[in-house]
RNA sequence: GCUCCCGUAGUUCAACGGAUAGAAUGUGGGCCUCCGAAGCCCAAGAUCCAAGUUCGAUUCUUGGCGGGAGCACCA
C-alpha cells in the first residue's frame, strides 16, 4: 500500500464507526481542501446530512467533536488533528510521520514509485503512429505519436501489458498520385540529399493541386494504381524505392521521439486479406453491391452506408481496416485494443466497429479520439501542402533553446550546448503537445512552443537541475556542517516542507487516475504543480545552510523530489537534465 | 439538414455536482553579498444567454447564440 493510501485508510477507519457501512464511498469522498490552512484532507458531510436529517454543518460539528476526543485518547499515526470547517470535517496530517513513511517508500521503490501492480493484469494494445508514406510527417502526426506513447507508458505504469502497434498506410490513391507527378513533372530528377520524404511530400501536394485544377490526370493516376496492383515491374520498383524513403524517415522520427513499437503493420501487406473479407461479407449477405461498389447498409442505425470497396474494385481504408482488426486478434490475445486517431474519424470508426460486429468479430476495439492540430489560418492539409513539418518545427525550437542556453553558459563546449538544447526543445515540444486535454484542439502557435518560462517543459527540467545542484553540493558539504556541531532546528515544521511532502505522496494516485482515464494531461498538469510547490519550498526553506538535523531531512526531501519528478518526466518522455 | 466537440481573466489552459472558480502568459510593482532569477513574491483581471434538476451547477438536462469538426466510393 502506498503512503497516501495508508493515510486515507486511517481517516476512513476513524470515520467508519460514525458512518456505518459505506466505506468504499468514503474513500472517493475524501478531497483536498482549497487551502492548506483549512486542512490536508476533507470529508464533506452533505450526503450524510441528508440521511440523518440534520444540517451538514451540524453533522460535521458532531463528527469532528467525537473524533477529536477519540484522537486525544488514542493518538493515531498520521492524523494529528480534526477540525470542522462549515460542512466539512477536515483532517490534519502529522508532517514528521508522513515524511518518515513517504521518504522510506520513495527511497526503497525509487524508479518504481508511482507504478502499480494491477489486480488483474490485462493485455492492452495501443495503435498509434499511422502516417502515410509519400507525405510529410507533420505536427498533427506528432500529437498522435506523443499521445499514443504516453498512454502506453501510463497503462504500463498501471501494471498492465502493453502492445504498441504502428500501422503504416503505404498504398492507396495518395501514393499513385505522388508517383504520377514524379514521373510526369520530375522524371530523372534526383531528390535533394537528406530528407527524401519531405521531397515526396512536396510532390504529393503538387500532384493533389494539379489534379484539382485538371481532373483529366485522374485517369492516368488510376492507371498507375492498377499497374502497381497488377505487379507492373517499373511502377512497383518506383513504389518500393520511394516507400523506403518515407519509411526510413518515419523510423528516424519515431526513434528520436522514443516511440518503440512491438509490431508494425503495413497496409500493402493486408490489402488482399481485406478484399477477401469483403467478398466473404458479400457472400454472407452482410454487405451488398450497389452501383458496382460494396457497402454495408447501416442507415437503420443512423450510420449511413459504409463503403467497403470502390466500384473499380480498388480498396479503401475500410477494406484494409477489416483485415487489420482480424490480424491484430490473430497475433495477440487482447483484453482491450485502443486505436489512437484524431476525432475526425469518429464516425468512420463507429461504422467500422459496427460492421465488424455484424461480421461476427468479437473485438474489444475502442477508438481513442483526440482533437487535431490546426494552424491559426485554418486546418493543415497534406493535399494543400500548408503543413508544418515535424522536422522544421523541431529545428526551430532547438535553435531557440540553443540561444537561451548559450546566453547562460558561454563557457560550455558546443557538444554540451547541443545536447542540452535538444533536451530542452524536446521537453518544450512534448509538454506543449501533452498538457491539453484530448478534446481540446491545438491551434499551433510557435511562440508558445519556444517559450521556456511558466508552465513549460523546461520549467519542469529546471527543478531537476536545482535538485541536482543541491545534491552535488550537499555531498561535499555534508560532513563539514556536522563537525561544526551547529545544533538546533527541527525538521518538518514549515508549511512548504509539508506541502511538498503531500504533493509527492499524491503522485501515485495521479498516475493511476491519468492511466485510468487515459488522460496524459492530468499527469502533465500535476507535474507542473509539483514543480511549483518545489520552487516555493526552494525559496523559503534553505537546505545546505540549515542546521544539521534539518539539513539531513531536507536533503532527503530534495532527493525524493528528484526521484518523483524524474519518474513523472519519464512517463511523459521528457528527458531529464542535470544542468541547463 | 443531421451528428460530435468546445464556449471560463486581454490571450492559452485548469476545476470526480461541493468550501473564496485555480494556473500560465501578458500588464504594473517588488526580490540575486545567501543551495541556479529558465526562479520567487504582491496587485488588477473571467464562468456566452435563458429556463430546469439539486441542499448546492463552470460541471447535469432542454432551448438559444457563437466557434470547430464529421456525414456513401478522400484519408
UniProtKB/TrEMBL annotation:
<dbReference type="InterPro" id="IPR005148">
    <property type="entry name" value="Arg-tRNA-synth_N"/>
</dbReference>
<keyword id="KW-0648">Protein biosynthesis</keyword>
<keyword id="KW-0067">ATP-binding</keyword>
<feature type="domain" description="Arginyl tRNA synthetase N-terminal">
    <location>
        <begin position="5"/>
        <end position="93"/>
    </location>
</feature>
<keyword id="KW-0436">Ligase</keyword>
<comment type="subunit">
    <text>Monomer.</text>
</comment>
<feature type="short sequence motif" description="'HIGH' region">
    <location>
        <begin position="131"/>
        <end position="141"/>
    </location>
</feature>
<dbReference type="InterPro" id="IPR001278">
    <property type="entry name" value="Arg-tRNA-ligase"/>
</dbReference>
<dbReference type="InterPro" id="IPR008909">
    <property type="entry name" value="DALR_anticod-bd"/>
</dbReference>
<keyword id="KW-0547">Nucleotide-binding</keyword>
<dbReference type="InterPro" id="IPR036695">
    <property type="entry name" value="Arg-tRNA-synth_N_sf"/>
</dbReference>
<dbReference type="Pfam" id="PF03485">
    <property type="entry name" value="Arg_tRNA_synt_N"/>
</dbReference>
<feature type="domain" description="DALR anticodon binding">
    <location>
        <begin position="460"/>
        <end position="580"/>
    </location>
</feature>
<dbReference type="InterPro" id="IPR009080">
    <property type="entry name" value="tRNAsynth_Ia_anticodon-bd"/>
</dbReference>
<dbReference type="InterPro" id="IPR035684">
    <property type="entry name" value="ArgRS_core"/>
</dbReference>
<protein>
    <recommendedName>
        <fullName>Arginine--tRNA ligase</fullName>
        <ecNumber>6.1.1.19</ecNumber>
    </recommendedName>
</protein>
<dbReference type="Pfam" id="PF00750">
    <property type="entry name" value="tRNA-synt_1d"/>
</dbReference>
<dbReference type="GO" id="GO:0005524">
    <property type="term" value="F:ATP binding"/>
</dbReference>
<keyword id="KW-0030">Aminoacyl-tRNA synthetase</keyword>
<keyword id="KW-0963">Cytoplasm</keyword>
<dbReference type="GO" id="GO:0006420">
    <property type="term" value="P:arginyl-tRNA aminoacylation"/>
</dbReference>
<dbReference type="InterPro" id="IPR014729">
    <property type="entry name" value="Rossmann-like_a/b/a_fold"/>
</dbReference>
<dbReference type="Pfam" id="PF05746">
    <property type="entry name" value="DALR_1"/>
</dbReference>
<dbReference type="GO" id="GO:0005737">
    <property type="term" value="C:cytoplasm"/>
</dbReference>
<dbReference type="GO" id="GO:0004814">
    <property type="term" value="F:arginine-tRNA ligase activity"/>
</dbReference>
<comment type="similarity">
    <text>Belongs to the class-I aminoacyl-tRNA synthetase family.</text>
</comment>
Amino acid at each position: 500500500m502506498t503512503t497516501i493510501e495508508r493515510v486515507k485508510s486511517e481517516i476512513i477507519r476513524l470515520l467508519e464507526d460514525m458512518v456505518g457501512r459505506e466505506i468504499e464511498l468514503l474513500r472517493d469522498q475524501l478531497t483536498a481542501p482549497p487551502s492548506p490552512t483549512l486542512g490536508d484532507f476533507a470529508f464533506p458531510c452533505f450526503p450524510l446530512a441528508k440521511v440523518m436529517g440534520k444540517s451538514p454543518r451540524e453533522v460535521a460539528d458532531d463528527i469532528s467533536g467525537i473524533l477529536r476526543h477519540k484522537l486525544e485518547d488514542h493518538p493515531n499515526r498520521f492524523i494529528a488533528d480534526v477540525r470542522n470547517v462549515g460542512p466539512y470535517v477536515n483532517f490534519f496530517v502529522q508532517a514528521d510521520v508522513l515524511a518518515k513513511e513517504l521518504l522510506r517508500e520513495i527511497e526503497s521503490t525509487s524508479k518504481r514509485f508511482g507504478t502499480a501492480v494491477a489486480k488483474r493484469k490485462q493485455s492492452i494494445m495501443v495503435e498509434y503512429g499511422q502516417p502515410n508514406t509519400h507525405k510529410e510527417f507533420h505536427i498533427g502526426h506528432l500529437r498522435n505519436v506523443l499521445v499514443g506513447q504516453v498512454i502506453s507508458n501510463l497503462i504500463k505504469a498501471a501494471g498492465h501489458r502493453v502492445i504498441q502497434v504502428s500501422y503504416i498506410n503505404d498504398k492507396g490513391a495518395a501514393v499513385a498520385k505522388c508517383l504520377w507527378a514524379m514521373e510526369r513533372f520530375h522524371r530523372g530528377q534526383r531528390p535533394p540529399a537528406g530528407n527524401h520524404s519531405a521531397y515526396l511530400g512536396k510532390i504529393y501536394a503538387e500532384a493533389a493541386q494539379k489534379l484539382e485544377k485538371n481532373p483529366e490526370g485522374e485517369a492516368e493516376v488510376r492507371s498507375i494504381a492498377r499497374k502497381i496492383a497488377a505487379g507492373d515491374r517499373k511502377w512497383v520498383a518506383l513504389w518500393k524505392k520511394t516507400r523506403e524513403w518515407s519509411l526510413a524517415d518515419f523510423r528516424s522520427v519515431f526513434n528520436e521521439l522514443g516511440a518503440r513499437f512491438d509490431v508494425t503493420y503495413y497496409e500493402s501487406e493486408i490489402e488482399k486479406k481485406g478484399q477477401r473479407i469483403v467478398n466473404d461479407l458479400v457472400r454472407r449477405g452482410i454487405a451488398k453491391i450497389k452501383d458496382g461498389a460494396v457497402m454495408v447498409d447501416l442507415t437503420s442505425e443512423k450510420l449511413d452506408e459504409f463503403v467497403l470497396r470502390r466500384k473499380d474494385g480498388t480498396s479503401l481504408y475500410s477494406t484494409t481496416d477489416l483485415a487489420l482488426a482480424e490480424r491484430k486478434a490473430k497475433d495477440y490475445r487482447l483484453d482491450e485494443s485502443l486505436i489512437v486517431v484524431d476525432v475526425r474519424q469518429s464516425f468512420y470508426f463507429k461504422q467500422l466497429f459496427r460492421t465488424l460486429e455484424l461480421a461476427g468479430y468479437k473485438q474489444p476495439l475502442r477508438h481513442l479520439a483526440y482533437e487535431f492540430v490546426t494552424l491559426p489560418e485554418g486546418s493543415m492539409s497534406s493535399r494543400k501542402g500548408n503543413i508544418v513539418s515535424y522536422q522544421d518545427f523541431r529545428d526551430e525550437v532547438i535553435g531557440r533553446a540553443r540561444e537561451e542556453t548559450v546566453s547562460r553558459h558561454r563557457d560550455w563546449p558546443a557538444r554540451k550546448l547541443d545536447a542540452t538544447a535538444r533536451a530542452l526543445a524536446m521537453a518544450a515540444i512534448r509538454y506543449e503537445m501533452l498538457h491539453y486535454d484530448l478534446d481540446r484542439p491545438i491551434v499551433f502557435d510557435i511562440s508558445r512552443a519556444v517559450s521556456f518560462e511558466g508552465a513549460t517543459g523546461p520549467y519542469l527540467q529546471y527543478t531537476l537541475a536545482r535538485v541536482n545542484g543541491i545534491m552535488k553540493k550537499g555531498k561535499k558539504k555534508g560532513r563539514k556542517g556536522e563537525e561544526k556541531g551547529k545544533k538546533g532546528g527541527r525538521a518538518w515544521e514549515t508549511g512548504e516542507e509539508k506541502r511538498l511532502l503531500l504533493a509527492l505522496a499524491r503522485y501515485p494516485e495521479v498516475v493511476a487516475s491519468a492511466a485510468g482515464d487515459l488522460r496524459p494531461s492530468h499527469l502533465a498538469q500535476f507535474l507542473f504543480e509539483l514543480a511549483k510547490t518545489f520552487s516555493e519550498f526552494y525559496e523559503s526553506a534553505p537546505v545546505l545552510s540549515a542546521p544539521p538535523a534539518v539539513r539531513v531531512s531536507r536533503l532527503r526531501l530534495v532527493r525524493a523530489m528528484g526521484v518523483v519528478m524524474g519518474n513523472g518526466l519519464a512517463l511523459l518522455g521528457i528527458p531529464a537534465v542535470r544542468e541547463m
